[in-house]
């Protein structure tokens, strides 16, 4: 079944189609391209036009280009447009226009990708589901997701991110969601926004893209909730708050062995569900997801059951057993809000010594030192036996910790990774967390290698 024919793609983009082709997917990477895909020659670190010949050799059905690249025959299957990114946007806009199902858009400072995957799992079985892959949430990720969307999609889940002012509104207007959800607003990308209120206003811009009588799902318990509510009201949205006092709220949550049983009240309906995690922030986001799904018109009870099939993505709070230790791999992102949530998850787990291995929280702006220092007073800290740190900013937390909780500090995560066997012991429960650029994931890799070596040695005895 084709996704786009040459004629459809040319009409969508105003481009010139060379040949009478059809494609069944859209790709921007020759490393993962599959036969029959439309290869989009975007410019990034390298110019995608340099890879068009390779894409066609790998079986691409056509390529979206701004000119015929060197080494590509003039009669090769192409779609020629003045600007490739704008062409992709136009294709995404057309993909959205021909789809008659419901669109749910998700943004937030923390938890966008995991919440998107929750929604995907919850909606499974309720029609044809289309969702963003990985963290495809930026100026090329959103149009790519829309361009890949089959016309007969029943529910689409679009993730929308930002790192600078003015990025969310055009993406929201491209996606035109029926329901838009904000997971939370936290001190992330503060360098670009100056204050958390600026971040809230940018997040609230997602509501400008809502379809008529659309629903805005907002966190109810934040200091900046009034900013989000004002943004939703300005867009004429139906506002649904989630949180301890919201129209969607958890009533009870009990965790045993890393699995949480939850009862929630969502828009007047009592829903029970299971999450394969112990993080309370995941519980709250799941309640928000159920509110969004209910607002979209899907079956809420079936969605609650579907949440039991969701697992935290790698690097985003998944708990795994590694050769005698329990690892919470949360090495993909970090800011004060998400770090506090990670520490709370660690504090709730029982059965061993609790160890935190933390890399720098980045892009926090002029108060970054104070924010690292403040984590020493986090309410979960007394439950944690030792905190190991890496990076110049985490040096501040290291110095502020009491002596009995102060572990090893290293200049880099790589240095800490080389000492990993000295940092943890069998039976420990270990949280590894930091901003992606802090590269604290190298510690996770070292822990996994050590566990594999230990396992191999035991099997060889």
Automatic annotation (TrEMBL):
Pathway: Cell wall biogenesis; peptidoglycan biosynthesis. It comes from the Bacteria. GO terms for biological process: cell division; cell wall organization; peptidoglycan biosynthetic process; regulation of cell shape. Residues 23-67 form the Mur ligase N-terminal catalytic domain. Residues 322-435 form the Mur ligase C-terminal domain. Belongs to the MurCDEF family. MurF subfamily. InterPro entries: Mur-like_cat_sf, Mur_ligase_C, Mur_ligase_C_dom_sf, Mur_ligase_cen, Mur_ligase_N, MurCDEF_CellWall_CoF430Synth, MurE/MurF_N, UDP-N-AcMur_synth. It is found in: Cytoplasm. Residues 106-292 form the Mur ligase central domain. Involved in cell wall formation. Catalyzes the final step in the synthesis of UDP-N-acetylmuramoyl-pentapeptide, the precursor of murein. PANTHER family: UDP-N-ACETYLMURAMOYL-TRIPEPTIDE--D-ALANYL-D-ALANINE LIGASE (PTHR43024). ATP binds at residues 108-114. It is an enzyme of class 6 (ligase). This is UDP-N-acetylmuramoyl-tripeptide--D-alanyl-D-alanine ligase. SUPFAM superfamilies: MurD-like peptide ligases, catalytic domain, MurD-like peptide ligases, peptide-binding domain, MurE/MurF N-terminal domain. GO terms for molecular function: ATP binding; UDP-N-acetylmuramoyl-tripeptide-D-alanyl-D-alanine ligase activity; UDP-N-acetylmuramoylalanyl-D-glutamyl-2,6-diaminopimelate-D-alanyl-D-alanine ligase activity. It catalyses: D-alanyl-D-alanine + UDP-N-acetyl-alpha-D-muramoyl-L-alanyl-gamma-D-glutamyl-meso-2,6-diaminopimelate + ATP = UDP-N-acetyl-alpha-D-muramoyl-L-alanyl-gamma-D-glutamyl-meso-2,6-diaminopimeloyl-D-alanyl-D-alanine + ADP + phosphate + H(+). HAMAP family: MurF (MF_02019). Its EC number is 6.3.2.10. Keywords: ATP-binding, Cell cycle, Cell division, Cell shape, Cell wall biogenesis/degradation, Cytoplasm, Ligase, Nucleotide-binding, Peptidoglycan synthesis. GO terms for cellular component: cytoplasm. The lineage of its organism: Bacteria, Pseudomonadati, Pseudomonadota, Alphaproteobacteria, Rhodobacterales. Transmembrane segments: none annotated.
